[in-house]
Design a protein that fits this description.
This protein is α/β, with parallel strands linked by helices. It is 32% helix and 24% strand. The chain is globular and about 45 Å long. Residues 31-120 form the Methyltransferase type domain.
Length: 200
């Protein structure tokens, strides 16, 4: 692990602002899906009174629970854990959706969100070659420059590579399961997905 200036940086953390900027005003309950050691959950807690983080990886949850915060860290499977339908105002997920069946994950997030609530995802998808090669090369160059300046924090959670779903497939899934969602592909080999659940 290399960290400079006392600040963590990696490709996932770089896009935390996409999540935090999507938190709706007045949100009372948030869920971080695939919370790892809890960095995003703790950032969410600064804006939302109750935050739960769930992850399947026991060492990561153990690490999260060592922090002096009041986030509710849950060791379990997001797809089957008995959260109540419509019980969260905001559901966030960073680099976790490709660890599960993407369609099942998005549908579960949709069902756990209250009407008017916001789903915010930053994820990884698989490039299609050779069409994506120029974009990916640009992302590697920019990512390398960020590392030189900021260092690189290696998260402790398990890694799945390559992602099973391509960018076009992910965009199509979002359009099908979350009509009206905003899907954006980012330079540093990530996509973001923002969706507000309709009222009523």
């Amino acid at each position: 692990m290399t960290v400079k200036s006392g600040t963590r940086w990696n490709h996932n953390i770089h896009y935390h602002s996409r999540i935090l900027g999507a938190v709706p005003a007045g949100a009372r309950r948030a869920l971080d899906v695939g919370c790892g050691e809890g960095m995003l959950a703790r950032e969410l807690r600064r804006a939302v009174p109750y935050v739960a983080g769930i992850d399947l990886d026991a060492p990561s949850i153990d690490q999260a629970r060592k922090h002096p915060d009041d986030v509710d860290y849950v060791l379990g499977d997001f797809l089957t854990h008995p959260f109540g339908p419509g019980s969260f105002d905001v559901i966030a997920s960073v680099a976790a959706l490709h660890h599960m069946d993407a369609a099942a994950g998005l549908a579960r997030m949709r069902d756990l969100l209250r009407p008017g609530g916001v789903l915010a995802v930053v994820g990884l998808a698989r490039s299609t070659m050779p069409a994506d090669l120029p974009r990916d090369l640009a992302g590697v160059v920019v990512g390398t420059l960020h590392r030189v300046v900021k260092g690189h924090w290696e998260h402790p959670s398990p890694i799945v590579w390559p992602p099973p779903v391509t960018y076009p497939q992910m965009r199509a899934l979002a359009a099908e399961l979350l009509p009206g969602s905003r899907f954006r592909r980012h330079l540093l080999l990530r996509y973001s997905l923002i969706w507000r659940k309709p009222q009523g």
